[in-house]
Amino acid sequence: MSRVERSRQNRFVFLDIMRGIAPVLVIYSHVVALFLNPHKLDSPVVDLLSEQFRDPLRLEQQMGHFAVVMFFLVSGFIITQVGTQESHREFGVKRLFRIYPLLIVTVGLTAILSIWHLQVLRTGQHFEITTPSVLTNMALANYFMVPQVILVGVAWTLVIEVVFYTIVMSLLAVLRRWTWVAIVIELGLVLAGLLLAREFGSSFFLLAVNLSYLPVVLLGQVTWAVWSGRVPLWAGTLLGFACWTLYVLGDIRNMGRLDDAYNSTFALGFGLFLALLLAESRLRPTKPISFLADRSYSLYLLHGPVAFPVMENLRGVVPVWLAVLAGLVLTVAAAEVTFRFVEQPGQRIGRRLTRRFRLPRPKAAEPVREEPAEDVVPAPAVTDRIEPTRPPRPARPPARRQPVRPQPAAQPARPQPAWPSTDWDGADVPAARRVPSVEDAFAPRVARPAPPRPRRPPVVPPREAPPVHGFRPTNGAGRGEIDRVEPNSVPAPGRHRRND
After folding, report:
1. How far is CA 426 from the centre of its chain?
2. Max CA separation in the chain (angstroms)
3. pLDDT for 142-183, tens place per residue?
4. Cβ contacts of residue 459 below 8 Å, gap of 6+?
5. What is the model's pTM?
6. Distance from C-alpha of 168 to C-alpha of 224, rounded to nearest angstrom
């Protein structure tokens, strides 16, 4: 899996959908409003979209402001989440390198093409190529100066982004600990700007005009606070109602609104944002949406100095649809170049410069690794992180176990002889405890005495009947005869009678 694919797995899909759709709507609105309509060029696609979407939903400015609302909601959501994880210096430097490198390139390209008398995108403000105007446009300082010189017509939204970044960076400590307090302070600044808009000169009025669009960004911030659990739902509802009230107040105070559809467009944009957020678990990333989301900033800035000169030069030479298609193709190609060689290098430089200023990340406790059984496949780990950082490494296969060989059964001990044996020192030691030595190996063998045979008990002959009065019956003696008396036997004293 490549690094790009891993990064896509850690992103919100609904934010990518909105970031992919928004630049397309901005380009569509400018092509229709500033190229087709001024030259009275008709298109069946534009007529169909106007009948089905623009007119019923009151999406004025050819749905351009609807795209701007989508951009602001996404910025308020994701910038607040990122800000709570970064230090002040890290946040400021990263936002600086995110906004200004591509803006400087776009302003320089616009100035060069204008010097060559090519028609770039113009929104009706004063347009003049001078060194001060180029430098002030590169710094976005021209939006606080009177008269205003606008070289990049879509850069007015970047001023609102920079104002929001500045406020968030100054309130980062409060935002991390008391999120609702930081949001209340931001709403208070907007209210003060609207009430005092015409009290401190023209430059402050221009700042108040930018602040009047800030409630849209703050509503995205409130949505993140409720979604992340930092603010309860009832408090988030009150803060969201406050954002809506301030946005309507900006319309009442006449803060540079072009029509009366800003409030309804804001409501529709937030409804779509909330619906996609609730459906986040069912959404799946796609390559076209991810491609447009990654290059949305380049597409947003470059379609003015790239697509419009192409369409103007091809108008009347080729069909209208072919001129528009050529301008769009070149815009996508230019956005790819700036994305690879301007945006990504700028972001890498910002990360390198802020490496020493990063906040310490809390270390998660390492799980206890248990050796799985041989026939069990370990299940993948389930994490509940919001912005997955890097995916865990795949689990190593279990080590091969060596087969256990059966051990031979213990042999019973041989019975030892009962007789004693003689050791080298002449002591009688049982044979089971004798230890052979080198002397035993070279000593002459001595015949071991044979064990004594057990004595058999003597055979006792059967005893004969004792003689009666000196007579012993024999087989050859007749009745009445006296047997001879053995010399070793002594007859008992007494009378002897005959046996008749």
Report:
1. 82
2. 182
3. 999 988 999 999 999 999 999 999 999 999 999 999 999 999
4. none
5. 0.72
6. 14
